[in-house]
Design a protein that fits this description.
By secondary structure, the chain is of the alpha+beta class. It has helices at residues 26-34, 47-59, 64-76, 78-83, 88-107, 112-118, 121-141, 143-146, 155-163, 172-182; strands spanning 9-14, 35-41, 186-190, 198-202, 210-215, 218-224. The protein is built from ten helices and six strands. The longest helix is centred in the middle third of the chain and has 21 residues, at 121-141.
Length: 228
């Protein structure tokens, strides 16, 4: 999937940018009926975390109270990391990067600030790294529940090797953990089923604030068609 050269997050494109060169099948037609646009995210193994944070911040960009609420959650989430055994020195820099991004959104009413920040590699990767650490902490702090969904023999080893490490693709259990940790609902549209689109709402029955497309082990951001 082509990206603008060097871009981690693209500009918004028409949904047809996802269509194959040959005649699009029923799934693509169904996708275009429900969604009008896509924002492509670089395929570096960090696409879910990057797409998740960008899409959430974009959805609340013009809502100062919601932005402030997200900032407060990020500040408070340091407690969860400490509970999971992380030393503050190992995460405070990345936590401050996320806080900086939210503060920039609060200070600048131009949405292109979000695109600029997420295409700045050190800033964008700092955000991803913090979300990975927070996901790991939530998994470990709720080990009695999540150990049932992790195939690895040791949850802590799984977190260290598969969740915390940059460029490692995320699993469904990681998505659920991050959704719970920040209380943010996610709608994932999967192209992987044979006949039709598969829709996953996380948590089940929740009211998702962001929409992601899952296709060939990759996540992009979707935009719903406006209801008339």
């Amino acid at each position: 999937m082509k990206m603008d050269s060097g871009r981690l997050v693209s500009r918004r494109e028409d949904i047809s940018a996802l269509f194959p060169a040959e005649t699009p099948g029923a799934k693509y037609k169904d996708l275009s009926l429900q969604f009008s646009a896509v924002r492509k995210v670089g395929g570096d193994g960090n696409c879910f975390y990057r797409a998740f944070c960008f899409a959430h911040l974009e959805s609340v960009f013009h809502k100062p109270r919601a932005l402030q609420s997200f900032k407060d959650k990020i500040i408070q989430s340091g407690t969860a990391l400490k509970s999971a055994g992380f030393d503050e020195s190992s995460f405070s820099h990345h936590q401050n990067t996320v806080i900086y991004v939210v503060e920039q959104c609060l200070a600048d009413e131009q949405e292109n600030i979000l695109l600029k920040l997420f295409n700045d590699q050190p800033i964008s990767d700092g955000v991803v790294q913090y979300l990975r650490l927070l996901t790991s902490a939530h998994l470990q702090n709720h080990a009695d529940f999540f150990c049932n969904f992790v195939e690895a023999p040791d949850l802590k080893v799984y977190c260290r090797q598969d969740v915390e490490v940059m460029t490692m693709e995320c699993d469904h259990v990681d998505i659920l953990a991050l959704s719970q940790a920040l209380d943010i609902g996610i709608h994932i549209v999967s192209m992987e089923s044979d006949e039709q689109l598969a829709h996953h709402i996380i948590p089940e029955g929740g009211d998702p604030s962001l929409h992601l497309l899952y296709q060939t082990s990759h996540y992009n951001i979707l935009y719903q068609r406006t209801q008339l």
